[in-house]
Structure formats: C-alpha cells, structure tokens
Amino acid sequence: MPKTLIEPFRIKSIEPIRMTTRAERERLLAEAKLNVFQLRADDVLIDWLTDSGTGAMSSRQWGAIMEGDESYAGARSFYRLQQVVQGITGMAHFVPTHQGRAAEKVLFAAVCKPGQLVPNNCHFDTTRANLEYAGVEAVDLVIAEGLQPALIHPFKGDIDLARVEALLKSDGARIPFGMLTVTNNTGGGQPVSMANIRAYSALLKRHGKPLIMDVCRFAENAMFIKMREPGYEHTPVKDIAREMFSYADGATMSAKKDGMVNIGGFIVLRSDEWLDAVRNDLIMMEGFPTYGGMAGRDLEALAVGLDEGLDEDYLRYRLRTAEYLGERLEAAGIGFVKPTGGHAVYIDARTVLPDMPVAHYPAWALCNQLYLEGGIRGVEVGSVMFGKRLPDGTETFHPMELVRLAFPRRMYTQSHFDYAAEVIAEAKQHAASVRGIRIVKQPPFLRHFTCECAWVE
Ligand code: F0G
C-alpha cells in the first residue's frame, strides 16, 4: 500500500486565491491596525481563521440545494433532515436553528435559571457567554492532562469525573444538567473517549441530572475513538457516533463544522420535558419549528452533509491532515498542542518566539508574522483573546500563547499544508526580527475582534 493518504475527492469547481507581495501585506496589515480579523479575505492567501462554515460543499450537496422546499410550515426538507438527524442521534425531537450559538441561546433561555451552574470539559466562548447571559456559572473541568500542550494523551478532552462528582455533592441543587463538548475546541480540538462519555452520563444520572452534549465536531470525535480506543477498531464510525449520542439526553450542534455546511445548527432532545418551552423560544428567536433559522435549501444541504461528514475515508484524511502539519512542525523544532486535534493545529508561540515578553503578546505577534511571511491567517488564542486590562491600567495574561490554524473542510490540498509548514519554519528563523505589539484601542469585551494595535518600538 502506498504511504500517502490522498484527498478522497477531486476538484470540480475552484476559487482562485491571490498572491500578494510582502510590501503589499505590510501595508494591508498596517491598515488593519495589526489585527488580522480586520483584513479583507481577498487579501489572505490561506485562510485558517476558522473551520466554521468555511468548508467546500460536495456536488451532491449543491444538487440537494435545488430540492429545497421553502414552505413556511411543514416543508418536505424539514422532514427529510429530521429523519437523518434522528437516525444519527437516536433522539426523538429535532429543532433546527441558524447556527450553534442560537441553539445554545434557545435551549438555555428555555431551561436555565439565574444562579445555576453548568459543568463542562471546556465551554466554547459562545456557550459560556450564553450561559452567563442567562445568569448561569460555566465551570470548566477538563482533566489536568488537557491543559499541558506538550503532553501526549489520547483523550485530552475527557472531563475530570472526580471533580464533577465533588461539584455534584457540593452544589448539586444548582446544576440543571451537565455538558460535554466533543471535540474540546477550547482545549485544542482534543477528543473525549467513549469510556469518559459513558461514565460521565452514568454519574449525572445517579444524581438525577441530564447530559447535554455540544456536538459540532462529533464525527471527528467518533473517528478518534475508532483510531485510539481499544475495542472500537472495527466498529463503523456511524455506530460509534450513535453510541456517543445514546448516553446523552440532548445536544446542541453547530452544523457549520461536521455538518459540512456554510450555515445551520440544531437542538436535539430525547424526552419531551423541555420541548414546549424550547419550541416557544425558538418561534420568538429563530423561526417556526420546521425551519428554525434555516432556508429549506440549507436543510437539504445539511441532510447530505451529515452523511458525508461520517464517511470514514473522509475522516481518516481529515485527521491525517492536522497530524501531517504537526509532523512538519515537529521536524522544524516548533512546539504545538500534542497530539494534533481534529480540526486545527495550535502552535505554541513561546517555542517560536522564546525571548519575547508576554506583555508584547507573542501569539498575536506570530499571527501577524505568518501573514507577513506568507499570507496565512490564523487566530491568536492567548493574552489578547483571554487577557484583560484592569481599571488601574495593568494587564492579566493567559497561561498559554497559542496560534490556532483551523482547517476548512475539503478545501486545501497537501501542497497548501507544505507551503504553510515552510512559512511557519521561516517565521521561526526570523524570530529575532519579529516585532511584538501593544494595544492602542480596545473595547470592553471580546477585544481580539476589534482592537487596534501598534508595533512595540
Ligand atoms: N461550540 C463549539 C465547540 C464551537 O467551536 C462553536 C463555534 C460553537 C459552539 C458555536 O457555533 O459558530 O455555529 O454559533 N466555533 C467556531 C470556531 C466559531 O471558530 O471555533 P456557531
């Protein structure tokens, strides 16, 4: 067998990307106030800002788009997608929303009360924000291994069951449900093992609490279980996914990830206990229950996408892509969160810029440098994103300085990855000349999206 794992598709429709010169990129980045979120996508060569809603749809999905039934109530496309979702999740109730954060908002508004507390391995930003908006405390309880970038462990997304149990004992009355994010995006796209899902579900059940999973990347998680968890080597990924869902009482989904579509999401629920409240909120916030926040054509594309996202050849190639870039970085002496996750590689900027003080934001500086060197856009996951400026003008810093390179699905080929590996290695070679930044203007919340920066002189 040849060693090379090829892209399991061929290209039918292409979208040109534009090379810019170094001088142009210097100017464009300066105009963007040294914040890559402010760049125009046309000025980016390889856009790895996010894997969310950015992937390529298949010809089968584009064909399904034409089948969309745009009826307001009772559209055929709703029933078609409902059947697919029920088949994968085994849940009785399917509630479409326009994306993941809308699913969170609708569910939490219907079910949560101020003063409550929700444990999770790690809450994604929007999940945390939606809980906090509802007056609920969001508690991250990922296992200790999940917080050490260089440590290799097959399931760094597992939740720490001992800490969950202690919390159930001390604060059980405040907990409406437990959550679990698969894969754990905030912790490096790391998977959760079946054993951990099963035990967490049983623990919650003993305390009378439901389990709600955040399942944007459930297919990638299922493939990791197949590849890493003893006993699942020969189990079809679809059956692994079904077993994962069998331990949950409900789920929120951003279909922009493993749903293989550009927009969409949903809630699923096993029992009808919360259904009326959820549907009532849905009608107010998103739309009538048979379309939620989606067009009929989007429901059709998702019905096909969910099936394609569980294809094992595709998933093997998908996980291999991140692993391949990791191998290239390892060879260049660049640190990253290990093992590589499903949808992204998280570079440890301190290994590229070891001498830069944290006050000069090394991960942000590296992000800028990747754009200047090679037109690549990633996202800083460090002290600009998670640090804070205090009223006295001092700063708090984040323990890790990472640059996330997240890969849109079915979009970039191996040569794009080879190119990126060279650009990152060059950034390391030029480390002495990489400039740190200071923040000159920032909003009170989520400052990374809109802050304006200047070079440190
Ligand atoms: N949960 C997780 C684990 C996510 O990664 C995201 C989105 C959401 C919920 C919210 O879904 O964007 O459809 O509203 N993550 C994207 C990212 C934005 O870049 O990681 P959404």
List keywords for this structure.
single chain, 457 residues, alpha/beta, Aspartate Aminotransferase, domain 1, Aspartate Aminotransferase, domain 2, 2 domains, 3-stranded antiparallel β-sheet, binds ligand F0G
Brief summary:
With 457 residues, the protein is of the alpha/beta class. The protein has 17 helices and 16 strands.
Present the secondary structure layout.
Blueprint: H1 22-31, E1 46-47, H2 59-65, H3 76-89, E2 93-97, H4 100-111, E3 117-120, H5 125-133, E4 137-140, H6 161-171, E5 178-181, H7 194-206, E6 211-214, H8 218-228, H9 237-246, E7 250-254, E8 265-269, H10 275-285, H11 296-308, H12 312-331, E9 344-348, H13 349-352, H14 362-374, E10 376-377, E11 379-381, H15 383-386, E12 388-389, E13 395-396, E14 402-406, H16 414-429, E15 437-441, H17 447-450, E16 452-455
Parallel strand pairs: 1-10, 3-4, 5-6, 6-7
Antiparallel strand pairs: 2-8, 7-8, 9-14, 11-14, 12-13, 15-16
The structure holds ligand F0G.
